[in-house]
Amino acid sequence: MDKLSNRTVVIIGFAIIIIGILLVSSNYLAGKKNKAYERVNISLYSENNGVTIDNTPKNIAAAGVEVSEDKKNSNYLGILKIDKIDLEQGFYDKGSELNNVDKSVTLLDPSDYPDKKNGNTILVAHSGSSYLGYFKHLWKLEKGDLASVVYKGKTYVYKIVNIYNDTKDGDVTIYRDKSKTTLTMITCTKDSDTEQTIYIAELQ
Hints:
Helix content is 29%, strand content 26%. It has helices at 2-47, 57-63, 69-74, and strands spanning 78-82, 87-91, 106-107, 120-124, 146-151, 154-167, 182-188, 195-203. The longest helix is centred in the first third of the chain and has 46 residues, at 2-47.
């Protein structure tokens, strides 16, 4: 009876260890898979010289072109690059079902596209330690640091001019110079559950 109990304890202990390893490694493996997928997508975007379809209904109707749902949801609208934190991540158009903070860097609805004079491109992403934490190293950025957006084959370079926090309550106040073309990046504030940090960058 004692031998059976010891064997059962060993089996249960071994099972717990295996489950623990699987849980810890699943996030790591998901991150690796996501990175590989990201490299392929960015490579394809680059090979096509950044030519993408602007999927806003207005432009599709104007062009008289019908675009399949698969086409809409598989192409990046642009690529965000920040060399200082080794970030290179694609983002989708506003109408794409992949344009969701739980799937990718997200282009907010009020955003303008990078080529609009005096417009504001607004990107948000998670900052946690999961593979979805695309903005987890944004806290390392300072005023004067550069970020770039590749859009329709052109690279737009921005310099960060302001960094500030706001209460995380579902709304965000963006303070920017409306006579400048800007990129705004928003994520949760490091080591805070109640605040979000806003990074304002101006086109150079």
